[in-house]
Amino acid sequence: MALFRLYPANQAGFLLQGDGVFLRPPEMRDYEAWSALRAASRAFLTPWEPAWSGDDLTRAAFRRRLRRCYEEIANDEAYPFLIFRENGVLAGGLTLGQIRRGVVQSGTLGYWIGAPYARQGLMTAAVRGVVGYAFTTLRLHRIEASCLPHNLASVRLLERTGFSREGYARAYLRINGIWQDHLLYALLDSDSLP
Ligand SMILES: CC(C)(COP(=O)(O)OP(=O)(O)OC[C@H]1O[C@@H](n2cnc3c(N)ncnc32)[C@H](O)[C@@H]1OP(=O)(O)O)[C@@H](O)C(=O)NCCC(=O)NCCS
Q1: Residue with CA at minimum distance from ligand 1 atom 14
Q2: Does the domain formed by 3-143 have CATH 3.20.10.10?
Q3: How far is the CA of 117 from the centre of ligand 1 (A)?
Q4: DSSP structure string for 110-121
């Protein structure tokens, strides 16, 4: 995996490369592809995500989302990426968020793939790329992730990329409008990767 600085030093931006994918923070020029892919994947994604707001897919909401992304990157709070296939087509998104420093040095992974691109190994490649970035460039010690117990795709993804199941949290996240129990997973910088 290679990492390059993409933008002038005053703008937060990174390019990560994985097996058949590249990742970079979202930009305004991604709006059309992002909103089209999210709209086409709505039924596939909504059972597993926080409820979408009424204006979620609008240009104004995307602009607000970008502003927040850049603030979070600048403040070392979160690192949001879009995932592209090698041909430059947008396939999904992945965020390493809730960065905690001090004695914790951890981040939390969240991800989605567009319905047309599911089960092609793209998220496996994206997670592997971000894991390398998190442990080397960001120097994190621990990456956490959680998923609904019946989300087999997410469970498989986490186990395939080396995460260990550490626990079970009751009514942990409000997903699709309902507080739901979650499986808790984590990967340590000292874990051997598959
Ligand atoms: C979870 C998700 C990101 C996986 O992305 P993906 O690009 O399809 O994953 P990959 O192709 O890299 O596959 C990873 C593993 O999951 C398995 N998998 C993928 N979709 C699956 C499904 N519907 N049912 C069972 N296993 C599935 C793959 O077979 C693979 O495991 P294997 O190598 O043991 O076979 C995707 O299904 C998704 O976005 N789901 C909806 C949103 C969501 O669940 N977000 C995460 C909330 S925690």
Answers
A1: 157
A2: no
A3: 10
A4: EEEE-GGGTTSS
> pLDDT > 70: what percent of the chain?
93
pLDDT at 3: 41
Report pLDDT digits (tens) over 82-132: 999 999 999 999 999 999 999 999 999 999 999 999 999 999 999 999 999
State in Å: Cα 157 to ligand 1 middle: 6
How far apart CA 55 and CA 42 sit, in angstroms, is 14
Token pair recorded at residue 118: 């599911």
Mean pLDDT, residues 66-70: 95
Helix (H) / strand (E) containing 60? helix 59-74
What's the 151 CA to ligand 1 centre distance in angstroms? 8
Q: Hey, which of 96, 155, 157, 183 would you mutate to test ligand 1's pocket, going by the most ligand atoms within 8 Å of its Cβ?
A: 157
Domain boundaries, the chain: 3-143
Q: How large is the average pLDDT for residues 149-167?
A: 98
Which residue type occupies 67? R
